[in-house]
Design a protein that fits this description.
With 324 residues, the protein is mainly alpha-helical. It has 13 helices and five strands. Helix 4 crosses helix 7 and helix 4 runs parallel beside helix 13. The longest helix is centred in the C-terminal third of the chain and has 30 residues. The protein binds tryptophan (TRP).
Length: 324
Protein backbone atom coordinates (compact mmCIF):
# COMPACT_ATOMS: atom_id res chain seq x y z
CA UNK A 1 0.00 0.00 0.00
CA UNK A 2 1.34 3.42 -0.94
CA UNK A 3 1.74 6.08 1.69
CA UNK A 4 0.59 9.60 0.89
CA UNK A 5 1.75 12.48 3.05
CA UNK A 6 1.15 16.17 2.99
CA UNK A 7 1.68 19.19 5.20
CA UNK A 8 -0.70 22.07 5.69
CA UNK A 9 0.48 25.56 6.39
CA UNK A 10 -0.99 27.08 9.51
CA UNK A 11 -1.15 30.75 8.71
CA UNK A 12 -4.69 31.52 9.86
CA UNK A 13 -8.33 30.49 9.59
CA UNK A 14 -8.96 28.77 6.25
CA UNK A 15 -11.28 30.82 3.99
CA UNK A 16 -13.96 29.80 1.48
CA UNK A 17 -11.36 29.47 -1.30
CA UNK A 18 -9.15 27.15 0.80
CA UNK A 19 -12.17 25.09 1.81
CA UNK A 20 -13.71 24.58 -1.63
CA UNK A 21 -10.46 24.50 -3.59
CA UNK A 22 -8.28 22.34 -1.36
CA UNK A 23 -9.72 21.07 1.91
CA UNK A 24 -12.94 19.39 0.71
CA UNK A 25 -11.27 17.57 -2.23
CA UNK A 26 -8.43 16.41 0.05
CA UNK A 27 -10.85 15.11 2.68
CA UNK A 28 -12.85 13.30 0.03
CA UNK A 29 -9.66 11.66 -1.24
CA UNK A 30 -8.32 10.60 2.13
CA UNK A 31 -11.65 9.35 3.46
CA UNK A 32 -12.34 7.19 0.42
CA UNK A 33 -8.90 6.31 -0.93
CA UNK A 34 -7.25 2.96 -0.36
CA UNK A 35 -3.86 4.49 0.41
CA UNK A 36 -2.42 5.12 3.80
CA UNK A 37 -2.51 8.84 4.44
CA UNK A 38 -0.57 11.16 6.72
CA UNK A 39 -1.62 14.77 7.14
CA UNK A 40 0.06 17.23 9.45
CA UNK A 41 -0.06 20.86 10.43
CA UNK A 42 3.31 22.40 9.66
CA UNK A 43 3.58 24.57 12.76
CA UNK A 44 7.38 24.42 12.85
CA UNK A 45 7.51 25.96 9.40
CA UNK A 46 5.20 28.68 10.72
CA UNK A 47 7.85 29.79 13.22
CA UNK A 48 9.80 31.27 10.31
CA UNK A 49 7.08 33.92 10.16
CA UNK A 50 5.10 33.89 13.40
CA UNK A 51 6.89 34.67 16.65
CA UNK A 52 3.82 35.10 18.84
CA UNK A 53 3.21 31.78 20.58
CA UNK A 54 -0.48 32.43 21.21
CA UNK A 55 -1.07 33.22 17.54
CA UNK A 56 0.97 30.21 16.42
CA UNK A 57 -1.04 27.89 18.63
CA UNK A 58 -4.41 29.44 17.68
CA UNK A 59 -3.61 29.03 13.99
CA UNK A 60 -3.01 25.33 14.52
CA UNK A 61 -6.32 25.00 16.36
CA UNK A 62 -8.30 26.81 13.69
CA UNK A 63 -6.75 24.76 10.88
CA UNK A 64 -7.34 21.51 12.77
CA UNK A 65 -10.91 22.53 13.71
CA UNK A 66 -11.65 23.22 10.04
CA UNK A 67 -10.44 19.81 8.83
CA UNK A 68 -12.32 18.08 11.63
CA UNK A 69 -15.48 20.15 11.05
CA UNK A 70 -15.53 19.13 7.40
CA UNK A 71 -15.32 15.49 8.33
CA UNK A 72 -11.71 14.34 8.06
CA UNK A 73 -11.80 10.73 9.21
CA UNK A 74 -8.94 10.45 11.68
CA UNK A 75 -9.29 6.69 11.88
CA UNK A 76 -8.17 6.61 8.23
CA UNK A 77 -5.73 9.51 8.21
CA UNK A 78 -2.86 9.97 10.62
CA UNK A 79 -3.53 13.62 11.55
CA UNK A 80 -0.93 15.33 13.68
CA UNK A 81 0.93 18.48 14.57
CA UNK A 82 4.47 18.64 13.23
CA UNK A 83 5.88 19.98 16.52
CA UNK A 84 4.47 16.99 18.42
CA UNK A 85 7.04 14.85 16.60
CA UNK A 86 10.27 16.81 17.20
CA UNK A 87 12.17 13.89 15.65
CA UNK A 88 11.76 15.81 12.42
CA UNK A 89 14.05 18.57 13.74
CA UNK A 90 16.75 15.98 14.34
CA UNK A 91 16.43 14.55 10.85
CA UNK A 92 16.52 18.10 9.44
CA UNK A 93 20.01 18.50 10.87
CA UNK A 94 21.26 15.25 9.37
CA UNK A 95 19.84 16.13 5.97
CA UNK A 96 21.36 19.61 6.12
CA UNK A 97 24.81 18.11 6.47
CA UNK A 98 24.37 16.31 3.17
CA UNK A 99 22.87 19.04 1.04
CA UNK A 100 25.04 21.62 -0.72
CA UNK A 101 24.59 25.15 0.56
CA UNK A 102 24.74 26.29 -3.06
CA UNK A 103 21.62 24.31 -3.97
CA UNK A 104 19.60 25.94 -1.22
CA UNK A 105 20.55 29.36 -2.52
CA UNK A 106 18.74 28.43 -5.75
CA UNK A 107 15.36 27.85 -4.09
CA UNK A 108 12.65 29.98 -5.73
CA UNK A 109 10.50 30.11 -2.63
CA UNK A 110 13.36 31.52 -0.56
CA UNK A 111 14.06 34.19 -3.16
CA UNK A 112 10.41 35.08 -3.28
CA UNK A 113 10.02 35.21 0.50
CA UNK A 114 13.28 37.04 1.15
CA UNK A 115 12.17 39.76 -1.29
CA UNK A 116 8.80 40.13 0.43
CA UNK A 117 9.39 39.59 4.12
CA UNK A 118 11.22 41.77 6.60
CA UNK A 119 12.28 38.87 8.85
CA UNK A 120 14.67 36.91 6.64
CA UNK A 121 15.98 34.38 9.15
CA UNK A 122 18.06 31.32 8.39
CA UNK A 123 15.08 29.08 9.17
CA UNK A 124 13.47 30.54 6.07
CA UNK A 125 16.60 29.58 4.15
CA UNK A 126 16.70 25.99 5.40
CA UNK A 127 12.91 25.55 5.15
CA UNK A 128 13.33 22.96 2.33
CA UNK A 129 15.40 20.74 4.64
CA UNK A 130 12.67 20.74 7.29
CA UNK A 131 10.17 19.90 4.58
CA UNK A 132 12.41 17.09 3.29
CA UNK A 133 12.60 15.73 6.83
CA UNK A 134 8.78 15.85 7.13
CA UNK A 135 8.57 13.61 4.11
CA UNK A 136 11.56 11.27 4.52
CA UNK A 137 10.85 10.61 8.20
CA UNK A 138 7.64 8.83 7.21
CA UNK A 139 8.82 6.87 4.14
CA UNK A 140 6.20 8.70 2.08
CA UNK A 141 5.69 7.48 -1.50
CA UNK A 142 3.51 10.32 -2.76
CA UNK A 143 3.31 13.95 -1.75
CA UNK A 144 0.34 15.99 -3.02
CA UNK A 145 1.48 19.59 -3.39
CA UNK A 146 0.82 22.72 -5.39
CA UNK A 147 3.16 23.59 -8.27
CA UNK A 148 5.01 26.11 -6.11
CA UNK A 149 6.26 23.25 -3.91
CA UNK A 150 7.65 21.10 -6.69
CA UNK A 151 11.20 22.32 -6.26
CA UNK A 152 11.07 21.35 -2.59
CA UNK A 153 10.15 17.80 -3.55
CA UNK A 154 13.04 17.71 -6.02
CA UNK A 155 15.37 18.79 -3.22
CA UNK A 156 13.90 16.09 -1.00
CA UNK A 157 14.66 13.47 -3.63
CA UNK A 158 18.10 14.92 -4.16
CA UNK A 159 19.13 14.85 -0.52
CA UNK A 160 17.69 11.36 -0.05
CA UNK A 161 19.65 10.09 -3.07
CA UNK A 162 22.89 11.57 -1.77
CA UNK A 163 22.41 9.85 1.58
CA UNK A 164 21.32 6.56 0.04
CA UNK A 165 24.30 6.67 -2.31
CA UNK A 166 26.60 6.68 0.67
CA UNK A 167 24.74 4.41 3.09
CA UNK A 168 22.67 2.06 0.95
CA UNK A 169 19.66 2.46 -1.28
CA UNK A 170 17.18 1.12 1.29
CA UNK A 171 17.80 3.82 3.86
CA UNK A 172 15.39 6.51 2.66
CA UNK A 173 12.33 6.28 0.42
CA UNK A 174 12.35 8.67 -2.55
CA UNK A 175 8.96 10.39 -2.77
CA UNK A 176 7.06 11.31 -5.94
CA UNK A 177 5.21 14.60 -6.13
CA UNK A 178 1.51 14.53 -6.99
CA UNK A 179 0.68 17.86 -8.49
CA UNK A 180 -2.59 19.22 -7.19
CA UNK A 181 -4.24 21.01 -10.06
CA UNK A 182 -6.58 23.66 -8.75
CA UNK A 183 -9.82 21.73 -8.90
CA UNK A 184 -11.91 24.83 -8.77
CA UNK A 185 -10.80 28.41 -8.91
CA UNK A 186 -12.70 30.39 -6.31
CA UNK A 187 -13.08 34.09 -7.02
CA UNK A 188 -12.74 36.58 -4.23
CA UNK A 189 -14.98 39.50 -3.41
CA UNK A 190 -13.13 41.67 -5.98
CA UNK A 191 -13.31 39.16 -8.85
CA UNK A 192 -9.66 38.08 -8.52
CA UNK A 193 -8.60 34.71 -7.12
CA UNK A 194 -9.59 34.48 -3.44
CA UNK A 195 -6.52 34.81 -1.23
CA UNK A 196 -5.60 35.85 2.24
CA UNK A 197 -3.00 38.35 1.10
CA UNK A 198 -5.48 40.20 -1.18
CA UNK A 199 -7.99 40.40 1.69
CA UNK A 200 -10.75 39.48 -0.76
CA UNK A 201 -11.73 36.35 1.11
CA UNK A 202 -14.85 35.15 2.88
CA UNK A 203 -14.48 33.55 6.29
CA UNK A 204 -17.47 31.20 6.57
CA UNK A 205 -16.89 30.70 10.29
CA UNK A 206 -17.78 34.26 11.22
CA UNK A 207 -21.06 34.75 13.08
CA UNK A 208 -24.09 35.55 10.89
CA UNK A 209 -23.94 39.28 11.51
CA UNK A 210 -20.24 39.69 10.75
CA UNK A 211 -20.53 37.44 7.71
CA UNK A 212 -23.44 39.52 6.46
CA UNK A 213 -21.57 42.79 6.97
CA UNK A 214 -18.50 41.46 5.21
CA UNK A 215 -20.48 40.18 2.24
CA UNK A 216 -22.22 43.55 1.94
CA UNK A 217 -19.09 45.58 2.40
CA UNK A 218 -16.47 43.53 0.55
CA UNK A 219 -18.22 42.32 -2.60
CA UNK A 220 -17.92 44.88 -5.35
CA UNK A 221 -21.05 45.62 -7.44
CA UNK A 222 -21.93 48.37 -9.87
CA UNK A 223 -24.59 51.03 -9.28
CA UNK A 224 -27.26 49.74 -11.66
CA UNK A 225 -30.64 50.81 -10.21
CA UNK A 226 -32.74 48.13 -8.54
CA UNK A 227 -35.38 47.98 -11.28
CA UNK A 228 -32.89 47.67 -14.19
CA UNK A 229 -31.76 44.36 -15.70
CA UNK A 230 -28.27 43.31 -14.59
CA UNK A 231 -25.54 41.21 -16.10
CA UNK A 232 -24.93 38.37 -13.58
CA UNK A 233 -21.28 38.13 -14.64
CA UNK A 234 -20.61 41.74 -13.71
CA UNK A 235 -20.19 41.02 -10.00
CA UNK A 236 -18.57 38.18 -8.08
CA UNK A 237 -21.79 37.79 -6.02
CA UNK A 238 -23.09 35.55 -8.76
CA UNK A 239 -19.76 33.72 -9.22
CA UNK A 240 -19.63 33.04 -5.49
CA UNK A 241 -23.25 31.96 -5.42
CA UNK A 242 -22.41 29.33 -8.05
CA UNK A 243 -19.89 27.74 -5.68
CA UNK A 244 -22.37 27.31 -2.82
CA UNK A 245 -25.92 27.05 -4.23
CA UNK A 246 -27.70 24.34 -6.23
CA UNK A 247 -27.80 24.68 -10.05
CA UNK A 248 -31.56 25.41 -9.92
CA UNK A 249 -31.05 28.28 -7.49
CA UNK A 250 -28.15 29.60 -9.54
CA UNK A 251 -30.35 29.61 -12.63
CA UNK A 252 -33.05 31.41 -10.70
CA UNK A 253 -30.65 34.09 -9.54
CA UNK A 254 -29.41 34.72 -13.06
CA UNK A 255 -33.00 34.98 -14.35
CA UNK A 256 -33.92 37.43 -11.61
CA UNK A 257 -30.85 39.59 -12.27
CA UNK A 258 -31.53 39.64 -16.01
CA UNK A 259 -35.20 40.48 -15.49
CA UNK A 260 -34.62 43.56 -13.33
CA UNK A 261 -36.40 44.44 -10.09
CA UNK A 262 -33.88 42.34 -8.17
CA UNK A 263 -30.91 44.24 -6.77
CA UNK A 264 -27.36 43.30 -5.82
CA UNK A 265 -28.43 43.68 -2.21
CA UNK A 266 -30.99 40.90 -2.75
CA UNK A 267 -28.34 38.77 -4.41
CA UNK A 268 -25.98 39.29 -1.49
CA UNK A 269 -28.71 38.26 0.92
CA UNK A 270 -29.33 35.10 -1.12
CA UNK A 271 -25.58 34.41 -1.11
CA UNK A 272 -25.46 34.80 2.66
CA UNK A 273 -28.38 32.40 3.09
CA UNK A 274 -26.76 29.86 0.77
CA UNK A 275 -23.47 29.97 2.68
CA UNK A 276 -25.26 29.55 5.98
CA UNK A 277 -27.29 26.63 4.59
CA UNK A 278 -24.31 24.89 2.98
CA UNK A 279 -21.91 25.31 5.87
CA UNK A 280 -24.34 25.30 8.79
CA UNK A 281 -23.21 21.95 10.06
CA UNK A 282 -19.50 22.60 9.56
CA UNK A 283 -19.76 26.04 11.20
CA UNK A 284 -21.36 24.52 14.24
CA UNK A 285 -18.72 21.82 14.48
CA UNK A 286 -15.90 24.31 13.94
CA UNK A 287 -17.10 26.41 16.86
CA UNK A 288 -17.63 23.33 18.95
CA UNK A 289 -13.98 22.35 18.45
CA UNK A 290 -12.72 25.89 19.00
CA UNK A 291 -14.58 25.83 22.32
CA UNK A 292 -13.23 22.36 23.18
CA UNK A 293 -9.59 22.65 22.24
CA UNK A 294 -8.75 19.78 24.54
CA UNK A 295 -10.57 17.54 22.07
CA UNK A 296 -8.45 18.86 19.21
CA UNK A 297 -5.34 18.23 21.31
CA UNK A 298 -6.48 14.73 21.99
CA UNK A 299 -7.05 13.92 18.32
CA UNK A 300 -3.70 15.43 17.33
CA UNK A 301 -1.86 13.63 20.12
CA UNK A 302 -3.31 10.32 19.06
CA UNK A 303 -2.13 11.04 15.52
CA UNK A 304 1.30 12.04 16.82
CA UNK A 305 1.64 8.72 18.65
CA UNK A 306 1.11 6.83 15.41
CA UNK A 307 3.42 9.18 13.53
CA UNK A 308 6.12 8.89 16.19
CA UNK A 309 6.30 5.13 15.83
CA UNK A 310 7.17 5.48 12.15
CA UNK A 311 9.47 8.45 12.75
CA UNK A 312 11.48 6.69 15.41
CA UNK A 313 12.04 3.64 13.26
CA UNK A 314 13.38 5.81 10.41
CA UNK A 315 15.59 7.85 12.73
CA UNK A 316 16.92 4.65 14.25
CA UNK A 317 18.08 3.46 10.82
CA UNK A 318 19.60 6.84 10.00
CA UNK A 319 21.45 7.26 13.31
CA UNK A 320 22.95 3.84 13.03
CA UNK A 321 24.27 4.45 9.52
CA UNK A 322 25.76 7.75 10.55
CA UNK A 323 27.61 6.22 13.42
CA UNK A 324 25.62 7.53 16.38
N1 LIG B 1 5.68 23.97 2.38
C1 LIG B 1 4.34 23.48 2.21
C2 LIG B 1 3.45 24.63 1.73
O1 LIG B 1 3.85 25.76 1.83
C3 LIG B 1 3.78 22.90 3.49
C4 LIG B 1 4.58 21.71 3.89
C5 LIG B 1 5.47 21.62 4.93
C6 LIG B 1 4.55 20.43 3.25
N2 LIG B 1 6.02 20.37 4.98
C7 LIG B 1 5.47 19.61 3.97
C8 LIG B 1 3.86 19.92 2.16
C9 LIG B 1 5.70 18.29 3.59
C10 LIG B 1 4.09 18.60 1.79
C11 LIG B 1 5.00 17.79 2.50
O2 LIG B 1 2.36 24.39 1.27
Amino acid sequence: MARILTGIQSTGTPHLGNILGAILPAIELSNTGSNESFLFIADMHSLTQIKNGVELRENTYSVAATWLAFGLDTSKTVFYRQSDVPECAELTWYLSCFFPYQRLTLAHSFKDKSDRLSDVNSGLFSYPMLMAADILLYDANFVPVGKDQLQHIEMTRDVASRINHLYGEELLVLPEPKIQEETQLIVGTDGEKMSKSRNNYINVFEDDKTLKNNINKKIITDATPLEDPKNPESSSVYELYKTVASPQRVLKMSQKLLAGGYGWGHAKKDLLDAIIAKFGDAREKYHYFMNHKNEIDEVLHQGAEKAKAVAQATLGRVREKMGY
